[in-house]
């Protein structure tokens, strides 16, 4: 064997060894709830040290100097005790995320969102199957983690039906959902969540800053189309030609695999998760990975789209169109009460301030219309039932929100955030680096941390209080910093073994390549993710450099 051949042979082993180290380190991180409890304790100790050192911050535009205050004083303890409930109740993302998820729960549980994802892929012309699969995955975050459950087996089945490599189809679907999670043509619950956390962080410097779920909307739409098309090209021209074909006895091998579940994503299972949905996603992963080796005919049945479902989609689309016309009629005309009461502008306006309620009503109405057509909604009592079922999945988020709300409130009260922002801004100004360079470094930082912190909300809650104020002080708007976070956080999703759906994708990959391991999956996802990272970042930097608005 030549030296070159030997090096090629050794690469997978070295990669697997390196990934094992990453996985081991990441698995040692505590649950996000415990992580923020520990960080809060460390924050209290740090505040005492910095306050004793007499550190202060002079925020530009303010006359008063902001001192660092210690939580380990009578005043600090009173604040921590008496304001705990207020901190939680007034946590900006709390009310909006619950309101939006009430509507999404109906659209999801009625079957509208899963059916929409299936139709997007199954009805595409043969040559557009890969772009359709990638686009459905990128926009699938509107269905939250359910997009993984629907599209990973669907991608494998569609590729197999077309005589293509089903392992590539499963991996392509996994990457499209994960690496494109924060880009979509739809407004999602993630948009609401990120805007709320960003507002809390921006308030450290400028409480008047109020971002909405639409603050990155134009950028998200263009990003969704561009990265989906780019990823499709890489799948067709790089990943599939180099991927090992399934063995001829693959079907026989799969028939001998052991496992429980239907593979449709409806299993319950048990498990834990490190992202915002915690044990819920762990349970989903448990059920799905059990069903990965189930009967292929069950996959086919799950992917079928009936006539009633198509009629339901048609009725939902017409209803959505009617709602959009209605919204335009009550928002756009001069003198509308939903315009800004002072100057009559559209942005900002009461309509955008209430966008969470608008999204709630939109998802609720189209979900009900679809459910009435297909029979998943038969009586008025079914609607609150679907809402309750959907809200079960938010319980882990509420627990996480409670500790995050305390951490952010303490961080602001101590003045450490202001001190870091002012000091960090001074360092950045001394470097003289242009805004695009700082934003690029932000994308890289978020990406690296995303490999070990798989919860987007936890990571942004940790980074936003530092990055947003600091970059504000050097002239970088909060919506730009939030957009930079979207890129780094999304692309990391499909490369980290700590993601619960990494195991799901690996399970499907092993159906067709029994010897496949973590290194195998990474070798297939890496070309797609790397290309998406480069293209998406280049788009963002060009967008910002040209001064194009990121959203409304």
Structural features, described:
- There is one protein chain.
- Helix 8 runs antiparallel to helix 9 and helix 9 runs antiparallel to helix 24 (500-512).
- The protein has a two-stranded antiparallel ribbon.
- Helix content is 70%, strand content 1%.
- The protein has one domain.
- The chain has helices at 3-27, 32-52, 74-82, 84-89, 92-109, 112-122, 129-139, 146-161, 166-179, 189-202, 217-242, 250-256, 278-291, 296-303, 307-331, 350-353, 355-374, 382-391, 395-414, 416-431, 435-450, 456-472, 478-493, 500-512, 518-545, and strands spanning 56-57, 66-67.
- It is mostly helical and 552 residues long.
- The model is unreliable at 1-12 and 248-295 (pLDDT under 50).
Short characterization:
The protein is an all-alpha fold.
SS content category: mainly alpha
- The largest beta-sheet arranges its strands as 1-2
Give the N-to-C terminal Cα separation. 60 Å
Number of strands: 2
> Taking all residues together, what is the mean pLDDT?
81
Uncertain regions spanning at least 5 consecutive residues? 1-12, 248-295
Number of domains: 1
Treating each run of at least 4 consecutive H or I residues as one helix, how many helices? 25
